[in-house]
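[job 4417] fold queue: 2 targets
>>> target A
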Amino acid sequence: MGRFGNQADHFLGALAFSKGVNRTLVLPPWVEYRFGEAKSIQVPFDTYFEVESLNLYHHVITMEEFMKDIAPVVWPPHKRISFCYVERNGEKLNSCNAKSGNPFGPFWDTFNIDFKGSEFYGPLNYDAHNKEMMNKWKQKYSLNNWPVLAFTGAPASFPVQKENVHLHKYLKWNRDIENKSRSFIKKNMSGGGFIGIHLRNGQDWVKACHHVKDSPRLFAAPQCVGYKNERGLLTQSMCLPEKSEIIKQIKRAMKKLNDIKYIFVASDSNHMIDDLKTALRQFDVSVVKLQQPNPHLDLAILGQANYFIGNCVSSYSAFAKRERDVKGLPSEFWSFPSPKKIRHEEL
């Protein structure tokens, strides 16, 4: 579902589920939507991430390897059944319609997969931490009768289930991404520390933030407000902070940190480079961004920043925050806690 940040949340849940039912996880390609392309593009999982580190938690295999070496034996074309909770709308009645729409059709077509039937797994769910539920899956779908469970959608929740957040430690950038990120930092931000910031401000995001009042746990907001809003309420400024709020918060961070020489900006739209250069002139810092858009490289760089400021509601920011938590690196979010609360606690 969605773009990379949402898919990463789903992936952690699917990883937990595969361990819960004790089945090898076939690592799916990442689904990408590129400008000018009518259909989604499927990018092999290991284009960005290591496979070996995931095997430390549970057995995994890439989709490419599975289709080449294993599927012909255990999952021949006439035995390919798609799984979904209930019937999905589409061309056929009483069907998962697993290939209806984008990215569904292009995803399976990438591997020349067609389905001969559908299996509705409701009322079972994919809470991997419910042992009774996992046993029901094993009983209903035995390995002998169902060697492969091919889901129409990820067997996972969004945002990532609280109990699965820690699994991010097994998700590591591959050597290519690591080398590119370190090379960029060395070439463009040497001689001092840097603050990494994520600005989510494209028009689609502006529209999404209109739903803050009606959706107290919108998208990845639970990473800030909690899964039951136990840490406060979601506000408009947490979703879409004003330019003045962004600048004030960066200045506060600058004053409490030592030897910061750079601000690295990742954004889907407006990087605010000129605004930040002008506003931060007194601090003698350089404001930096990638010359060519590369969201994965942006994330790898944000994961290495001395300090990070992200967006509570964004699953993209959530990815960076999880990675930094694994490394023990400090982070905060725009307008959370509220500036008033921060000032009160400082008194």
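>>> target B
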Amino acid sequence: MAHLNLWSLTQPVGIIRILAAILTCICFSLVATVGYSSSPYWAWCMFTWVFCFFFTLLILILEFTTVSAKLPFAWDDSTAAFAILASLMCLATSIIYPTFFTCNTCHREIGASVISWLCFGVYAGEVALTRLRPSGQNSGFLSTLPGIMKILETFLACLIFMSLERQQYVGSPGLQWCVAVYSLCFIFCIIIILLTIGQLTSIPFSFDKLVIVYNILAAVMYSTAMVIWPLYSFSNNKRPNNCGHLCPWDKLVMVTFMTIFNFIVYTLDSVYSIHLVFFVSNQ
């Protein structure tokens, strides 16, 4: 039978989560009063604040009622992973929203931007607290460096999807290949994360070596996209003179940089995973 755990709300991590829930609620409430925008960047910002608010509140409720102790997956690992993801999402939102949606007289937008930076600071503080575990306390996969890189890979893929528009790649086999690379790598990365959280990695062969193979293939695929996307996107396609905020040409640049960043992350993930499996584990 579940009982109430007041300590979960009064400990430092609990207080930080309460602050995060309040701040994210203020953010999406302020932006909602301004009005709806059809921009995918606006949708991303609103999704970030609502997503972070909902799951932070859910974590608080589950820990307060001690239901979290009865869940069939690694709870501490999942909450640590959420804090890392939320900090990344809030960081991106804190840059994107003021860049595209604020002006000198946009007081509510400016207020939302400032509070969004506070949200990032709060979630970064939670990451620091959850990463600084007592000596001897084990951390799950998503709290380790390979797990963090998996979270970063999915996050960067989300930024790519946010900037993609159908007319950018329709009729171009090269760009369609790039979209296939982004989609396939994202799907398999999510599968790896879910299998790890659900502790479903007991398979007839080494799961760690399977992940290494995936990381190498993903890095190779992203290396092709890193070359093909800008080659096909910017060939005879200069930035228009009347290209202001939310210009479609700028989205091509966004996809290009996120592709490069994700290639770097996948490469580092591959190298570090090979080091762990073939060198550290054999010592």
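[job 4417] complete. Note on B: Residues 248-280 form the longest helix (33 residues).
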